[in-house]
Structures
1.
Amino acid sequence: MLKVEALETRYGQSQVLFGIGFEVQRGEVVTLLGRNGMGKTTTVRSIMGMTPPFAGSIDFEGTALRGLAPFRIARLGLGLVPEGRQIFSDLTVMENLTATAAPGRGGKDGVRWTLARVTELFPWLAERRNQLGMHLSGGEQQMLAIARALMTNPELLILDEATEGLAPLIRQEIWRVLVHLKAAGQSILLIDKNLRALTRLADRHYVIERGRVRWSGTSAALVANYDDIRRYVGV
């Protein structure tokens, strides 16, 4: 589905990624792990065309993404929940959900994400439909950002720091949603630091350190190497 090979990206003269490579198969949940500043977000930005790489390849469903504008990449079926959420603060909850909505092809059962389906997954959205984004809590904004990404009906959902800095109850709610999405066949690329939750949810993991993949393996392999991976991730 998504295959990244030998990816190299820089900011100005400072190189950040040094040959990153990984893949996500359809229906998988795959994680990018590592300490802050190791290149995880830059990898996501490179995939989405926001920080174009200068070397390597990114293939999504047979289409080369390098050189494409971010809006064209999104239209191919990649939905991003960015670090910092970046909802439209001066739009209402409903306006946030409809502003970038797209029909998509639907999941493995052909069912598409609609307002009715999204509000069933996040019931509070209907209750606060007319509330401005700026008046939501951080956790509510994160859930709105996930719901907004789902409304694009993505083939691949990418979440950057899915639960970072959120209250425990909100984190639990987001993990519940991610488990539901996986069961529905949604392909997910996920950045987070909660190793315990990730080993229960994800199929495979890639550890990034200083712009390189230092370790990769299944959840079973991560559990077997848990202490070593914890040191890489810094938790």
2.
Amino acid sequence: MIYADNTCEEVGKYGNRQVPGNFTQSADLANFRAHWRYAREDAAFQKLLATTPYYGIWDDHEVVNDFGPLQDTRDSPPYSAAAHLLPIGLKAFLDYTPIRRSQHTPNRLYRNIR
């Protein structure tokens, strides 16, 4: 999925070359969506998504590292201590990850898959 709490610079942590991303750490919907678009710009990944079913699993970096319903704020820039990121990250996740929605629990992410 994405690491919304990171950026993608031209040179990676270990000196590896990367395709730089045009986004910052996600503190608003525009940057969450920029992370998702960046990941899907790769032609090989587009082909994989077009030909292979997958189960999208929301990770602890989809919003900020180690987040939860009561730990989804940060107080260092670009974040604001008053802004809850979970609803924004969830919106972006559902925009880019097709999940059948239940009428009774439309935002439920967990599934029983056999």
3.
Amino acid sequence: MTYKPFDLTGKVALITGGNGGIGLGFAEAVAAAGANVCIWGTNKEKNAAALEKLKAYGTQVSAFLCNVADEKQAESSFREVLKEFGRVDACFANAGVSGKAGSFLEISAEEWHRVLGVNLTGAFYTFRAAVRHMVERAKNNEPGGRLIGTASLAAISGAARNEQYAASKGGMISMIKALAVEFARYGITANAILPGWIETSMTEGAFGWKKFVDAVMPRIPVRRWGRPDDFGAIAVYLMSDASTYHTGQSFCIDGGYLVF
């Protein structure tokens, strides 16, 4: 018999950047646990392909085109989610872009704002819309809600030549902690997930570089890259009733990289 608190039947998850990589790993897992799922992405074809995968789980699923860095798009898309699903129980702020490699001395203002715009400001727009909804529900005697932010080990390690990305993910962790404290009174939890080196479209360039692979792989105790499906269990746990008392934390999913 499945542990009852992990049953997500009837709950609704919104997952930004849910059309691929870690976001799709989140989406497939929570759908398999019974959740209805809405994914946001900026690529129409990827959205459609992800939607076909999610339909196999038999829950209500939908995909919206949304650039989270655009405040109006994020706000209007969230309203559309509520029209279609009626509620949002868990909001995964997962949409992100990588930094363009180069010395800190060469990072342009445009590049800085590009990365921070999606990774941090976009998460702010998304979470703000979700929290407003969750607080309103709590005031109507329906407390609860889950905020999950995808950060990175780059937030807590020395990500040389990628300061813009590191700053965006460090900001995510700090925002999550603040949200956890401010909104606990409404039954809302907030936690961050810090992926290590994961096989996604964002990392394929690095993983195709032999010098990088030879330097990094020996530092991963489990001796493999992470996969999107490595994030399914933590997504289900953090969305579920099992994590009601677990908030303000950062979960490193990295194959032991950080501690080695």
